[in-house]
From TrEMBL:
Keyword set, alphabetical order: Coiled coil
Organism: Sinanodonta woodiana (Chinese pond mussel)
Biased composition (Low complexity): 281-293
Gene3D superfamilies attached to this UniProt entry: Arfaptin homology (AH) domain/BAR domain
Sections of the chain in a coiled coil: 99-166
Protein name: Uncharacterized protein
Domain of life: Eukaryota
UniProt-listed InterPro entries: AH/BAR_dom_sf
Region Disordered, annotated ranges: 246-313
Length: 313
């Protein structure tokens, strides 16, 4: 059923896409679905974390209360990480929306050219009819109109060719930046995921072992360690964010345009070739030149007490 619904949705998107940009519209829709799915997952995880905290609050076991409380703090940080990643998915979708707008701009230029060609053809037909009537005045008027229509058509042809070249250059720039940013976003998500859940594992290890021990003898002494772990996670996530910002700036600050009119290098190659009624346009791509803060120790004393609900000493 889901496959059928998805197929129907994709077909409707393709049919409603003007100018033959169905695949691009489907891609934009798919990225939107990925973003929405990530948002749904993040919200579900947040609700589960809140319910876990509510459950732990009703326990008499101080170890469970403290560990789950600190893990809940980690989950709040993880929610922020996911929100940031969802924002990157939105930017990635916008990349293709801008590419689509460029394609539509070319469509409008081609439509204008078609109008000019139709107008020129109409005047030519009228001129042929007037020639048979041998009316010099009408012929001169129509010849002037034809000359104007031909100039207008030539301008429209040049506009189409220029827009195609410009759009291909911009498309390359947008696609490259979009893919690089998405790759950085996934790598950043992976790094922060490791930071959060490795720390969650460390906090979970603070729960005392009860094997071969009487419950009254088991003590919990990990409160300060758990708080320190959470503080370290905050510091590490801030460092990840700063390093990501610096990396992104270095990646895109010196990117040259992939197309420069009249410029060619020995290692350049044709990557785009499009023909129109009069003009052939080509695009050359040139190879661009390459170019822990230690947290304060928590001074609070550990929570020391029997796991079964004894007072904290």
């Amino acid at each position: 059923m889901k496959r059928a619904t998805r197929a129907i949705r994709r077909s409707s998107i393709r049919l409603m896409s003007p100018g033959g940009h169905g695949n691009l519209n489907i891609l934009i829709s798919d990225i939107r679905d990925v973003k929405n799915a990530a948002k749904v997952q993040s919200n579900a995880q947040k609700i589960a974390s809140e319910d876990l905290l509510n459950w732990a609050a009703g326990q008499e076991n101080i170890a469970i209360q403290d560990v789950v409380g600190q893990i809940s703090e980690l989950h709040l940080l993880w929610t922020e990480v996911q929100k940031e990643f969802i924002g990157h998915l939105k930017e990635y979708k916008h990349t293709y929306e801008m590419i689509l707008e460029g394609e539509r701009d070319i469509d409008r230029a081609k439509q204008n050219l078609n109008v000019c060609e139709q107008k020129e053809g109409k005047i030519r037909r009228e001129l042929r009819k007037s020639a048979r009537k041998s009316n010099p005045a009408d012929i001169r008027v129509l010849e002037a109109k034809l000359s104007q229509a031909e100039r207008t058509k030539e301008i429209a042809q040049l506009e189409v060719a220029d827009k195609i070249r410009e759009n291909e250059a911009v498309k390359l720039i947008r696609l490259k930046e979009g893919l690089l940013k998405l790759s950085d976003a996934y790598m950043d998500l992976g790094k922060k995921s490791c930071v959060v859940f490795e720390s969650q594992r460390e906090i979970a290890l603070q729960l005392p072992d009860v094997h071969s021990k009487e419950l009254e003898e088991v003590k919990y002494a990990g409160a300060a360690a758990c708080r320190n772990i959470v503080q370290q996670v905050r510091v590490k996530l801030r460092k990840c964010r700063r390093s990501t910002d610096i990396s992104t700036t270095n990646s895109f600050s010196e990117l040259p345009p992939p197309y420069s009119p009249g410029m060619r290098t020995s290692d350049s190659s044709h990557i785009f070739h499009s023909s129109h009624d009069v003009h052939n346009s080509s695009l050359q791509q040139q190879t661009p030149s390459q170019q822990q803060q230690k947290p304060n120790e928590d001074s609070d004393d550990d929570l020391v007490g029997a796991v079964g609900g004894a007072s904290i000493r």
